[in-house]
Amino acid sequence: MSAFNLLPVVIFSLILGAFLLVYLGVQSRKKAKQSEAFLTSLKQQLTMNQRAAVEESMNIKRNNAESFWFDLPIIGGWINRIWLDFSLLGWQEKWRSRATLLATPCLLLGFTLGKSSQFPIGASVLLSLGFFFALIVLLYRNAMGKHLKEFKQNLPQAIDSIVRVVKAGVPATNAFGLIANNLPGPLAKELALIDKWLSLGLSLRQAMQDSAIRVPLNEYRFFAVILVINQEAGGRLSDTLERLSETLRERQELALKIRAKTSEVRASAVIVAMLAPLSLAYMYFNSPKDFQFLLSDPTGNSVLIYAFGSVLTGLAITHFMIKRVIR
Q1: CA dihedral 130, 134, 135, 136 (to 10 degrees)
Q2: What are residue 202's phi and psi, to 5 degrees?
Q3: Residue 161 CB neighbours (<10 A)
């Protein structure tokens, strides 16, 4: 019973934490709007003799982009990384409406399942929060996987295009805009953004560093490092990029072979992950008494926690084993 006595404290802590995160988010959004308005006024006054002012304005934008709530202990780094990923996916603009849309079915499901437990309000809130965060993680991982997969597939093609442009005598700093107009997918948007910053006077080193932070892909970071080192140390950029393009294509072929060999294990993990929720759904409709036992009886709670804990542990072990093979 001591564990259930802590339930109000846990619920209060979650509500307080959510309130603080919302408050910090509102404050950071106000600061971001003020910064955008200030930058807009600076860009309108931009001339050829105002390079120093442009550098200062871009530094202001980068500094204000990192809101103070990203510096929160433990979770600040995760929030910053997720917020950058939301920018890549285009989720930042309407994140409030998206969150509301996702929260509605989670609340309905949470209160439907939690109303029959020993602590209806507390269990309903915890279940709703659990479903909400689980749904966000699922959608986020799925969207980021597809995004980075398309990004990775188009990267060798973009490198080949840069090689052809460089061999034609065009500087590499002028190639991003040309390639972005003839390249599909998210990589075109990233190259167009780099070209925009370069046209405003930002150095190639800083532009590629910012881009490498936005894109969490090792292959793309190799590409950024090569461009920066070549600009600072010199050398035959076309030859280096050609070898990188060949290496990336070989890595893609190897990744496809690995996915083919691990397909059975990944399919088994998906089936195991679906067994628990499907079993609970079947029990809810066909054996309501047993379902009520799991939620309202302490012994049933222990069985339910053990079942979910064992399934999650098995999935985590399978996930890390597959990741270790892929790496």
Answers
A1: 110
A2: -70, 145
A3: 18
